[in-house]
Here is the input.
Amino acid sequence: MDVEQILSLLPEGVLEELAVTTKVNRYSKKLQGELVFKLLLHCILSHKDNSLRTMESAYESLVFSLLNSDSDKGSIRYSSISERLSTINPEFFEQLYFICVKTYSGVIGEQDAILTRFDSTIVSLSGHLLKTGYQLKGGDAEHLRQLKFTIGLSEIPTAVFFFHDQEHTSENIALKEAILSHQPSKSNTIRVFDRGVTSRKTHDELTEKKIPFVSRINANSKQKEITKNGLEKPIETETLLITSDNWVLLYSTKGKAKYPQRCIKAIQKVGNKEIVFITNIIDLTPSEITELYKCRWDIEVFFKFIKQELNFSHLINRSENGIKVMLYVTMIAAILLLVYKKKNNLTGFKIMKQKFVQELEKSLVREIVVQCGGSLDIFEKKFGKPPK
Here is the structure.
């Protein structure tokens, strides 16, 4: 599936309709919502080190002129872009993100996904530059402000959350809120998350609401054995030696849990370290549970991808409003790239992104040839036909 086909899957006129419903263009004639989105998306995909000045320059480029052929030409100042990002209605971009999730979930097989990985990533910046965000106490951290982005990743990022208040410093609050707020298409979707969630009340709430999960706890966590699952002998996997599979009641300093959890203990073959998995899932084998948790690593790879290839760590606008806009547009860019990657059986991210951009530019040049009355046959003979 080529880039043109992927982009064509979005409903026709979706940007114009959202502009009307969200009233994103009420106070702006030139930097309207549709234009800001296209400019941000173009720069995120085409420029690894995106900035406001990069966007100023990109606005006048031939490629962006083709992407934004309906708009008046001319120039814009980087300061105008910054000001617009600080005031533009982020709901326009949020709703567009939801539409992209819905549209591309079916294309990539997301509706069949049984697993959503949850985790958070932190972006830090000097408190002199970033006015929103929370501060940590002690050492150099006191001079920084931090923002937390919590993502739910299946085949694509299907849930995104932005936290900047002190309360959400704790993953017991941030991850819990994200997991409970997420409404996947399948009720039996398994949530996978790491040891950041230490609250037994969170485990109880997930169990009470019949939300299947797989996580880990510290090896020295207090627990009381309730029943054994009949593990007759240790089970060996590629990386683990699973030694026990019991139902236990977990304890913490605030008391014991309300519901028992399945506790699977294992020894890592490399390093001989004990690790402990917990879950409320009954009908999977111990090795299947450990393999599900192993899939959690995918979200670490995703965070590395958006930070290194989509410049997510660099805040081109430091207002709360602008940060939300960048979050949603970055997630839309990631969705498009992940769909392209899967539908074309590509590996890695860096080269895949380059191929996506090159293919998009080639598609736009083809459009120039047609509009100028040139020979498409000669163009395709020299540069090749688009992939089917």
Observations:
- The radius of gyration is 24 Å.
- The first strand starts at residue 115 and ends at 126.
- The chain has 14 helices and eleven strands.
